């Protein structure tokens, strides 16, 4: 039965750029990745029912470290640096790839990565790289498209079908999400709980 998972505890744990900075691997982890301007921070905040757990910024590229959040002492949400549109030095951008790849490859408790994309823009090259790399690391990709409220209901479903056709997958594999309206939370929590067993 679908239901919004009740979050009683959502706390920042630590942030870092290399394995020695990361917390012990005791709880199942769910990573969140996506371009710098797709509303990833807003999605995480709305998903856990908080407004300021993850810092949001009007400047793309605000997140430059891997950030860990304790959710109900049952799982860990991991916010990865955004890619694509970040206005940060090239040297910083160049370091993100190895940092993120090292994290994805080296966390035995990582269960899935929520690939966050903008419904209006669809799947871009960087998104596709992230989606295709997930199975190589033994991680399940969960495809979520934000800004669904920018479309009417029928138009959003049509857009989902178009994207699914391009990915050669069932439309139901793609989740629509609106942080402003809080829509899509139940379906995303269902996926997260399936992979974490929580």
TrEMBL record:
Function field: Necessary for normal cell division and for the maintenance of normal septation.
Cofactor: Mg(2+)
Record-level GO cellular component terms: cytosol
Family membership: Belongs to the TRAFAC class TrmE-Era-EngA-EngB-Septin-like GTPase superfamily. EngB GTPase family.
Gene: engB
Higher taxonomy: Bacteria, Deltaproteobacteria, Bradymonadales, Lujinxingiaceae, Lujinxingia
Entry-linked SUPFAM superfamilies: P-loop containing nucleoside triphosphate hydrolases
Pfam families, A to Z: MMR_HSR1 (PF01926)
Name assigned to this protein: Probable GTP-binding protein EngB
GO terms for MF: GTP binding; metal ion binding
Domain EngB-type G positions: 26-198
Keyword Nucleotide-binding applies: yes
């Amino acid at each position: 039965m679908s239901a919004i998972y009740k979050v009683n505890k959502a706390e920042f744990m630590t942030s870092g750029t290399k394995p020695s900075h990361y917390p012990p691997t005791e709880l199942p982890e769910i990573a969140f990745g996506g371009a710098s301007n797709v509303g990833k921070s807003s999605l995480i905040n709305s998903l856990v029912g908080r407004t300021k757990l993850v810092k949001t910024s009007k400047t793309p590229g605000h997140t430059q470290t891997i950030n860990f959040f304790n959710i109900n002492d049952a799982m860990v949400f991991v916010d990865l640096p955004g890619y694509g549109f970040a206005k940060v030095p090239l040297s910083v951008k160049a370091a993100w790839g190895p940092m993120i790849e090292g994290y994805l490859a080296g966390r035995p408790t990582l269960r899935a990565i929520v690939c966050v994309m903008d419904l209006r823009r669809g799947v871009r090259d960087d998104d596709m790289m992230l989606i295709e790399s997930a199975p190589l690391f033994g991680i399940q990709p969960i495809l979520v498209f934000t800004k669904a409220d920018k479309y009417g209901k029928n138009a959003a479903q049509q857009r989902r079908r178009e994207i699914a056709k391009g990915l050669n997958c069932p439309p139901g594999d793609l989740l629509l999400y609106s942080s402003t309206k809080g829509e899509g939370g139940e379906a995303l929590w269902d996926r997260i709980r399936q992979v974490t067993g929580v």
